[in-house]
Amino acid sequence: MGSVSARDIVIEAAEGGYAVGAFNITDVVQMQAVVEAAVEKRAPVIIQTSVKPSKFLRPDVLVAVYRTLAETAPVPVCLHLDHCTDLDHCKKCADAGYTNIMIDASRHSYEENIRQTKAIVDYCHALGDITVEGELGTVGGVEDQIKVAEDEAALADPVQAIEFVERTGIDIFAPAIGTAHGVYKTKNPKIDFDRFAQIQQLVNGGGMLAPLIVHGGTGLKPEVVQRLVALGGAKFNVSTDLKHASIDATYDYISSHRTEYNPGKIDMAAKQAVIARVNYWIDLLGCAGKASCTGDHRS
Ligand code: 13P
Fold first, then answer.
1. Buried residues in 126-151 as b, exposed as e (16+ CB within 10 A)
2. What is the pLDDT of residues 195-244, one digit of tens each?
3. Cα four-point dihedral sign 219, 223, 228, 233
4. How many CB atoms lie within 10 A of CB 52?
5. What is the DSSP letter of 177?
6. Lesser CB count within 10 Å: N end or C end of the chain?
7. Which residue's CA is the nearest one to ligand 1's atom 9?
8. Distance between CA atoms of 295 and 267, rounded to whole angstroms?
9. Does the predicted model carry a pTM greater than 0.85?
10. Catalytic site residue from 27, 60, 82, 241
C-alpha cells in the first residue's frame, strides 16, 4: 500500500466516521515506531515532522527513510511537514518527496494567509500528488518555532473558513477551535464544538471540500477527542504525548541501567513506549483495521 498523500486517507476517514492519527516524530526510531504501530493495528497513518527536526535531519534523509518504511508497510503511510511558516522550506520538503505540506500563515492577516497558502497549494499541486493543509485562526501553546499564548489564540471565523478553503484550494483544513499545542495550562480547555460543527457544515456539508483537522491532541480528554471525531475531525495531530513517552522511557532506562552503555537498548525502550502511545491513539480515533483505504479522491 505504502506512500500516499494525506488527502486520500483523510477523506476516507471523514466519510467513514473515524480519524487518522498524525504523529510528530523527531528521529528515525520514532518514525519506525509509528509505522510499526500502524501495521500492528492495520491503520492508515500520517508521520509528521515539525520544521526544526526536518532541517536538522534533512528532508531528503527523512524522505528516504519514509519511503523505505512505507514501501514495505501493508498500510497507507503519509509524510507531512507540520506548521511550516517558511515558504522556501515548504517547497524544499515538497521537492524532496514529502507527500503533504502544511503551510502555516495563520499569524498573518487574512489576505496574506490566503496569498501564502495559495502559493504553496499551486506549487505542490503542480509538482504532482502532494496535498496541502492550511490553518485559519491560531492554535495556542508551543509547536516547534511557533508560540501562541492560549488566551491569545484566535478562533476561526466560520464564514471566512469556507472562503479560505475555496480561495486557497487547500486539500485539508485546520480551523482553530480552542485546542492548544502541548500540555494545557487551563484544566478544562474551552473547545468550541459548535463552531467546529458549523465549519464542518459550511465547508463539507455540500460535498467533501476539505476534511477538518484537529491540532493539539495531547491534552484532550478521550471524550473530547471522540466528540470531535463524530463532528467530522478526520486527522488528529499528536506530538507532545510521543515526546514525553520517548524521553521518559529513555530516562527510566538509563536511570535503571547506569553502567550498561548500550544505545540500542535505550532506543528499544523509547521505541516500545512510542508504539504503546500510538496504539492508544489509533484505538481512540477508531482507525484500527481501516488500512484497506486506498481510494484516490483527486480527479
Ligand atoms: P500536541 O503537542 O498538543 O499533541 O499537538 C500536536 C499538534 O497539533 C502538531 O501540529
1. eeebbbbbbbbbbbbbebbebebebe
2. 999 999 999 999 999 999 999 999 999 999 999 999 999 999 999 999 99
3. positive
4. 11
5. -
6. C
7. 237
8. 35
9. yes
10. 82
